[in-house]
Amino acid sequence: MESLVVLVTCLALGVAVARVGQPPPMLAQGLNWWVLNVALPALVLSIVPRLALSIDLWFPAAAMWAVFLAGWGFFVLLGRALRWPAQRAGALTLVGGLGNTAFIGYPLIEALRGPGALPVAAIADQAGVFLALAVGGTFVAAFYAHGRVTPGMLARKVLLFPAFLALVAGLLIGRLGGLPPLAESVAARIGSTLVPLALFSVGLQLRVRLPGALWPAVAAGLSWKLVLAPAMTWAFAVLLDVAPGIASITILQAAMAPMITAAILAQQHDLEPELAGVTLGLGILLSFLTVPLVSALV
Questions:
Q1: What's the pTM value of the predicted model, to 2 decimals?
Q2: Are 136 and 69 in contact (CB under 8 A)?
């Protein structure tokens, strides 16, 4: 519960400071730079070397990738039908395809299903969403930010993204026995700044009064993330005859609110920043209602 209070408090502080605190004009951009280039890579380095994968837990990881890729296809098709600009599909792919499976997911799942559910939740987060952000999220952000780009440009964007470099380094370090305890502790401390600073930044930029043309996009993003994604995951679990305990936790992770870092990535690449911020903020608030409802159903 403490983690959820921190989330809401940091978001509310950002909104309040933007209204009455007269923050420096470039404060949000500076915070976003720290989140993507320092805090996120540090968090990756603190987690990935300890990541242990099991063939028995393939479904939670694969399902999170399916949510991201299917969401991408959903928003592209919807965008073509509604004649959206390409950047809108990119923004919704990031905030609708990647879920907040750690900072919201862990506390909610522990509260709803108990501590025993956390190992499955961690696989969905670390091997699923985490990797999808570092690889797929970076690709989508670069593609929609630059439009027609060469494969070389996209490759450079992905391969030089700090979180991706940290991911590769973390996998190598894990094979070599892991980080020394002091280095792991320092990386984890720096990584822990990600959520409060990212949510504070989102609050600084949050504008609920969007142009009317953007509200259908917000509705589409939240419909996919909070309703359609868990429904698709449930269907896959039934079709593949996944063990009920693993299936239910994976479905709950698929139902989590949009990922904070994904919204920051969209804003950094100028992919409809207001749309990304509002979808994130409303998604977090609504998820406190929708995730327990999904839990009751599965």
A1: 0.77
A2: yes
